[in-house]
Design a protein that fits this description.
The complex is a heterodimer. By secondary structure, chain A is of the alpha/beta class. Chain A contains 8 helices and 8 strands; from the N terminus they run αβαβαβαβαβααββαβ. The longest helix of chain A has 11 residues, at 97-107. The two termini of chain A are 30 Å apart. By secondary structure, chain B is of the alpha/beta class. Chain B folds into 2 domains: 2-176 and 285-369, Alpha/Beta hydrolase fold, catalytic domain (Rossmann fold, 3-Layer(aba) Sandwich); 180-279, Orthogonal Bundle (Rna Polymerase Sigma Factor, Chain: A), CATH 1.10.1740. Helix content of chain B is 34%, strand content 16%. Chain B is built from 10 helices and 12 strands. The longest helix of chain B has 16 residues, at 178-193. Classes of the chains: A alpha/beta, B alpha/beta.
Chain lengths: 203, 371
C-alpha cells in the first residue's frame, strides 16, 4: 500500500484529469494526492478518509476531508456532483466493492480506480511454489493482519465492470506510464501489471 | 490584548424581530482578544452556548473562574490570539450585559422581565451582525461555536453567506428534536414552578427563583454528560458517608455533584434569561424562512466549513451533525467533517480534548494561510 505515495502514481492519475475539475478522492490518506492535483491541475478537491489521524493531516494541509467510510458514506452525495472520483488501493479493502464501484460512477462523471492485481505472475507463483499467501511491496500485509477483504485480478475487475454496466475507457500501466484506450481483456496486462489502473464511467 | 466593551446599536432603527416586535436600542456586551489586522481579515467570531457568555478566555467577573473556552482561545492555542482577532458577544436575551430580561426597559424604567420580547437564534445573529458592522468587519474569517453556538454559526451561514469566509459548527443541529424541546421545557417548568419566580418580576424582590433555576441546571447538566462518564466518575459512590442514611439527603456523590452544579449556577445566571434562551433554541429551525428546505437555507453559502461531533454526545449526536454535512455535500460546498472519540458527552467541546483542539487548529491555520 506504500505505492500510493509514489509520485509516479500521482503524475499518471493527474494526466487523466483536466484542469479545474472537481475531484473526490476516496480513501485520500494524508491528502497528498489531492494536494498534488490542487497544485498541478488546480482541481477543486475533496477527500474521504476513515483513519482519523490522516483526517487530521488533511485538515492541517487545508485539504477538505470527510471522516467517513466508502462502504456507507458515498450514499450522501448527489448524482454527478464531481467530475472525477478517485479510488486508489482501497477497492480491495471495502466490504462491498460492487456497491462502492456503483456509487463512484453515480456521484462523478468519471472514476479512476487502482488496485493491486492479484493475478500478477509473482503472486500466482508465490502461492503455487511457497504455498503461502503472497507478501510483497505492494501487498505488504500478512494474511492474518491484512485490511484487504476482497482481492481481485485485473480480469475480475473487468468482469465486475461489465456486470455493473460500467464502461472502462482507459487503462494505465504504472511501469511504462502509458495510458491506452481499453479494448478488452489482455493476457499481458493481467499477468504482468502489478497494479490495475483504469478510468471508468457509466455506460 | 483583552478588552471588555459594551456598545449600543440599532438606536435610530430598532431591530425587527422574528416575532414581528421591534427591539432597540440593542446593547451588546462583548469581549475581544488579539488585534484586528489592517486588512480586517483575521476576525474570529465565537458564539457562546446557552449558559455561556462573552468571557471566552478571560476571568469571569462573578465566578472568578477562567473563561469557558480558555483551553481553546489564547496565545498559541487552537484559536491563536497572536494571529486572530477574537470577538465574542453576549447574545441578546442573555444576562451578562447585553439586552435581555434583566436589563432596564427604557419605556418603563424598570427591568424588562417577561416584557422582554421573545427572541430567536436568527434575532441573536441579526444583533451580532450589527456588532460586526459596527466593528467595520466586512468578512469574518471564521464563525465558530458549539451547541447553541453552532446554531448561531448555521444561521450566519444561511443569512449572511457573503460575510463568512469559514465556519466551524460544533456539536449542534439544524433544529431541536422533540427530546431537546422536552428537556428545555422541563427546565422552564422548574423555574416557573418556583413561587419566587413571580411571573418574572423578581428583580426588586429579595426572593429570587434560585431553587427553580437550580433544578433546571441540574436537569440540563445530566444531558451534557454521557452515561459512561457519569458511571465511571460517580458510580454508586456515597458522599462523605460509609452507609446509606435512609433520608433524602445527598447520599450519593452524583446527587451532591448535581446539587453543587445547581447552587453555583444561580449566582451567575438569570432565571428569565434561561427561559428566553431555551425558547430561542427550541424555536430554532434554520429552514423556517426557506419552506422547510435545508438545501434552500444554504443555497447561497460558499464558506469553507468544518463540522465536528463527539461520539458520546446524545444531546446533539453525530447523526444530527452528519445531517448538516450531508446537506453541505449535496450543495457541493467545501465541507470537512471529523468525529472526536470521547466519553465526555455533549460537554466535550468545553473539555480538554486534544484531538478536538488539533482539528480546530489545523483547519484554522491552513485556511488562514490560503486566504
Amino acid at each position: 500500500m506504500s505505492l500510493i505515495n509514489e509520485k509516479k502514481d500521482f503524475s499518471i492519475i493527474s494526466s487523466l484529469i483536466p484542469e479545474r475539475s472537481s475531484v473526490i478522492d476516496i480513501g485520500c490518506n494524508d491528502g497528498s494526492l489531492l494536494e498534488y492535483l490542487e497544485i498541478n491541475k488546480k482541481v477543486d478537491g475533496r477527500g474521504m478518509e476513515i483513519d482519523q489521524e490522516k483526517v487530521q493531516l488533511c485538515l492541517s494541509k487545508g485539504i477538505s476531508v470527510i471522516e467517513g467510510d466508502a462502504d456507507t458514506d458515498l450514499f450522501d452525495y448527489p448524482d454527478n456532483l464531481f467530475d472525477y472520483s478517485i479510488l486508489t488501493y482501497t477497492l480491495q479493502a471495502t466490504k462491498s466493492p460492487k456497491t462502492v464501484l456503483s456509487q463512484l460512477v453515480r456521484i462523478s462523471s468519471k472514476s479512476i480506480i487502482s488496485f493491486p492485481n492479484f493475478g500478477h505472475w509473482l503472486i500466482g507463483s508465490s502461492l503455487l511454489i511457497n504455498q503461502k499467501m503472497p507478501v510483497s511491496k505492494k501487498l505488504s500485509y500478512s494474511w492474518h493482519e491484512t485490511p484487504n477483504l476482497h482481492f481481485c485480478t485485473i480480469n475480475d475487475f473487468i468482469d465486475l465492470c461489465n456486470e455493473l454496466s460500467i464502461k472502462i475507457e482507459f487503462k494505465a500501466n504504472l511501469k511504462t506510464k502509458k495510458i491506452k484506450p481499453f479494448n478488452g481483456k489482455n493476457i499481458i496486462d493481467s499477468y504482468f501489471n502489478e497494479v490495475g489502473l483504469f478510468l471508468i464511467s457509466k455506460k | 490584548m483583552i478588552e471588555n466593551k459594551t456598545v449600543e446599536l440599532a438606536k435610530d432603527q430598532p431591530l425587527l424581530l422574528d416575532s414581528g416586535k421591534r427591539l432597540g436600542p440593542i446593547i451588546t456586551a462583548y469581549t475581544t482578544y488579539g488585534q484586528l489586522n489592517d486588512e480586517k481579515s483575521n476576525a474570529v467570531l465565537v458564539c457562546h452556548a446557552l449558559t455561556g457568555d462573552q468571557y471566552v478566555a478571560s476571568k469571569h467577573p462573578i465566578t472568578q473562574k477562567d473563561g469557558w473556552w480558555s483551553n481553546v482561545v489564547g496565545p498559541g492555542k487552537s484559536i491563536d490570539t497572536n494571529k486572530f482577532f477574537v470577538v465574542c458577544p453576549n447574545v441578546i436575551g442573555g444576562c451578562m450585559g447585553s439586552s435581555g430580561p434583566k436589563e432596564i426597559n427604557p419605556v418603563s424604567g424598570k427591568e424588562f422581565g417577561t416584557d422582554f420580547p421573545i427572541i430567536t437564534i436568527a434575532d441573536m445573529v441579526k444583533a451580532q451582525k450589527l456588532l460586526i458592522d459596527y466593528l467595520n468587519i466586512k468578512k469574518i474569517f471564521c464563525v465558530t461555536g458549539g451547541s447553541m453556538g453552532g446554531m448561531l454559526v448555521l444561521e450566519w451561514l444561511s443569512k449572511f453567506p457573503d460575510m463568512v469566509h469559514s465556519a466551524i459548527p460544533i456539536a449542534t443541529a439544524t433544529n431541536h428534536s422533540a427530546q431537546n424541546i422536552a428537556l428545555n421545557e422541563l427546565a422552564r417548568q422548574a423555574i416557573m414552578a418556583d413561587p419566587n419566580w413571580q411571573t418574572g418580576k423578581y428583580y426588586s424582590s429579595p426572593d429570587k427563583p434560585t431553587k427553580g433555576l437550580s433544578v433546571a441546571r441540574m436537569a440540563a447538566h445530566i444531558s451534557y454528560l454521557s452515561k459512561d462518564a457519569l458511571q465511571s466518575k460517580f458510580g454508586r459512590n456515597l458522599q462523605d458517608r460509609n452507609e446509606l442514611e435512609y433520608s433524602f439527603d445527598a447520599d450519593f456523590q452524583i446527587e451532591s455533584y448535581l446539587r453543587h452544579q445547581g447552587f453555583t449556577f444561580v449566582d451567575r445566571f438569570d432565571a428569565n434569561s434561561y427561559l428566553y434562551i431555551t425558547r430561542a433554541m427550541d424555536y430554532f429551525d434554520v429552514t423556517s424562512q426557506h419552506g422547510g428546505s435545508l438545501i434552500e437555507a444554504f443555497k447561497d453559502t460558499k464558506s469553507k466549513i468544518l463540522c465536528i461531533s463527539f461520539t458520546s454526545d446524545w444531546l446533539y449526536p453525530t447523526s444530527e451533525n452528519k445531517k448538516i454535512v450531508k446537506v453541505f455535500n449535496s450543495l457541493g460546498l467545501d465541507v470537512s467533517f471529523i468525529e472526536i472519540e470521547t466519553d465526555g458527552g455533549h460537554d466535550s467541546f468545553l473539555l480538554e480534548e486534544p484531538k478536538f483542539f488539533e482539528a480546530l487548529k489545523g483547519f484554522l491555520n491552513s485556511t488562514f494561510d490560503k486566504i
